[in-house]
Design brief:
This protein is α+β, with helices and mostly antiparallel strands. It has six helices and ten strands.
Length: 216
C-alpha cells in the first residue's frame, strides 16, 4: 500500500448529512436527480464539496455529505426556492430516511481522493458526558497512525451542532481490504488496546461501509 505524506488541517466548516432511501428499481433516477442537485450546489455561495455514498449492505440507502463554508451558507441554500423545487422533483423516487443533520468539521488528516469512486466508512459516536476533549485527541492520534501506515486517503471528524456528545467519523480508503489490513498493524492494535471504544461510549459503535458514487 502506498504511504502518503501526513497532511493535517483544521477547519470549522459545516458538513450536512442527508440520508435517502431510494425506491427499488429507481437508483438511476435518483442518481440523475443527484447530478442536477450537484450542479445546483456548485453555484451556491459558500458551497465547498459534496460526496454521494451508497451503502454496501443496503443497496437503496444513499448518504450525501455536503460541506459548506459555514452553517449560515447552508441555511440560505436550504431555504432557497431552487432547492425546494429540486426536492419536489424527487417525490416518489426517494424518501428522507432520517432527520437531516449539521456538523462542524473539526479535524481532517490527509487528502480526499482525486479520482472518482472509492470506498468509505462512516462511524457514529454518542459519547459519555465529559469525554469530548479526550475523544477528539484520541482521533487525532488514530488518524495520524492510519495515515502513516498507508492505504487511506483521508480521515475526518465531524462534531454534531445539536449537542456536545455526538460525532461522526468519515474515512476514505483505497479499498475495503485497506481498512481491515490497517487494523492488523501492531502500532494501531496497541492504540485500540489503550483506547477501547468503551472508554468513550457505553456501547461500541458499528461502522458502515459505502462506495462513493460518481455521476457524470
Amino acid at each position: 500500500m502506498e504511504i502518503r505524506e501526513n497532511k493535517e488541517h483544521k477547519s470549522m466548516m459545516c458538513a450536512t448529512r442527508t440520508e435517502f432511501l431510494v425506491q427499488s428499481g429507481r437508483a438511476h433516477e435518483f442518481e440523475a436527480l443527484w447530478l442536477e442537485m450537484r450542479r445546483m450546489l456548485a453555484m451556491a455561495p459558500g458551497f465547498r464539496d459534496a460526496v454521494l455514498l451508497n451503502s454496501l449492505g443496503y443497496p437503496g440507502k444513499y448518504v450525501a455529505i455536503v460541506k459548506w463554508e459555514n452553517r449560515d451558507a447552508f441555511a440560505v441554500f436550504y431555504r432557497s426556492p431552487a432547492f425546494r423545487e429540486s426536492v419536489r422533483s424527487g417525490n416518489g423516487v426517494y424518501a428522507i430516511n432520517r432527520p437531516e443533520e449539521a456538523y462542524e468539521v473539526i479535524l481532517t488528516v490527509g487528502e480526499a481522493p482525486t479520482t472518482p469512486g472509492g470506498w468509505r466508512q462512516l462511524v457514529e459516536w454518542d459519547l459519555k458526558p465529559g469525554m469530548a476533549a479526550a475523544f477528539e485527541a484520541s482521533r487525532k492520534t488514530l488518524f495520524d497512525l492510519r495515515q502513516r501506515h498507508g492505504g487511506i486517503f483521508v480521515s475526518q471528524l465531524f462534531r454534531f451542532l445539536g449537542n456536545a456528545t455526538r460525532y461522526l467519523v468519515m474515512q476514505a480508503y483505497e479499498n475495503k481490504d485497506a481498512e481491515r489490513i490497517g487494523r492488523t498493524v501492531p502500532e494501531i492494535q496497541e492504540f485500540f488496546a489503550v483506547h477501547p471504544a468503551t472508554k468513550y461510549v457505553n456501547h461500541a459503535p458499528t461502522g458502515e461501509y459505502y462506495t462513493a458514487i460518481h455521476v457524470a
